[in-house]
Amino acid sequence: MQLLKIEQVEKYYGSRSSLTKALNSISFTVDTGEFVAIMGASGSGKTTLLNCISTIDRVTAGHIYLEDTDITTLRGKSLGRFRREKLGFIFQDFNLLDTLTAYENISLALSIQKTPVRNIHEAVENVARQLGISDVLDKYPYQMSGGQKQRVASARAIVTGPKIILADEPTGALDSRSAKLLLERFNYLNMQENATIMMVTHDSFTASYAERVLFIKDGRLFNEIRKGTDSRKQFFDRIIDVVTLLGGDVSDAL
Q1: pLDDT digits over 135-187, tens only?
Q2: Structure pTM?
Q3: Angle between helices 176-192 and 146-158 (to 10 degrees)
Q4: Whose CA is closest to 7, among 33, 31, 25?
Q5: How far is CA 92 from CA 1, 129, 132, in A?
Q6: How many structural domains compose the chain?
Q7: N or C, where is the chain less crowded by C-beta within 10 Å?
Q8: Whole-angstrom Cα distance, residue 40 to residue 202?
Q9: CATH number reported for the structural domain that contains residue 191 in this entry
Q10: Domain range spanning residue 93?
């Protein structure tokens, strides 16, 4: 079932005398329960695309539909309600509130939605168990490792049951062990909870956990590949092949 539809989206920056086309007529769809990675060189437009989908940025032209709602037309309270109820966003730098414990950081998202207090505790405990962070709920961010902070940030993003989880370089600030653990939790959420995830990444290993990878080049959709029946190692090798076609150095990060 189709959840997200990107239709001829364009995004320009600058003035007429110096115009940069960050996104150039991009179109694709995402089904409910898909795990999609977006890859591309620095400046390719991948983060701009995610920002437009998350309504952090506005498109110059085109439309973005989540279910039956054209989110490019939302303004004011309707936009705020859409962000609270439909989106879960995971940032590379965690964006946790330092003065709140992990439990309080996660529960804040529910409080903003006016979730009854009696339901908050159960929801936080459930998501903490899914992400393996039950033992840090009473800790403050400065008491946690980078991997723990990112999983707390992920718990905050999904505890409200959003329609789609948008992750911007979620493993970018993590060591390899923490990154692998986080990606395995993403896989769990996708496979067991049917979570729809769209993740921007520069890293081929990270992208290999997705079921489909979209490659962006110069603001356009350059290619896409699906995992299908491949093992993750086989899928990783295919991702590397496309990275090579894009002309990037794998160590660079595409």
Answers
A1: 999 999 999 999 999 999 999 998 998 999 999 999 888 888 888 988 998 99
A2: 0.88
A3: 20
A4: 25
A5: 29, 22, 19
A6: 1
A7: N
A8: 7
A9: 3.40.50.300
A10: 2-252
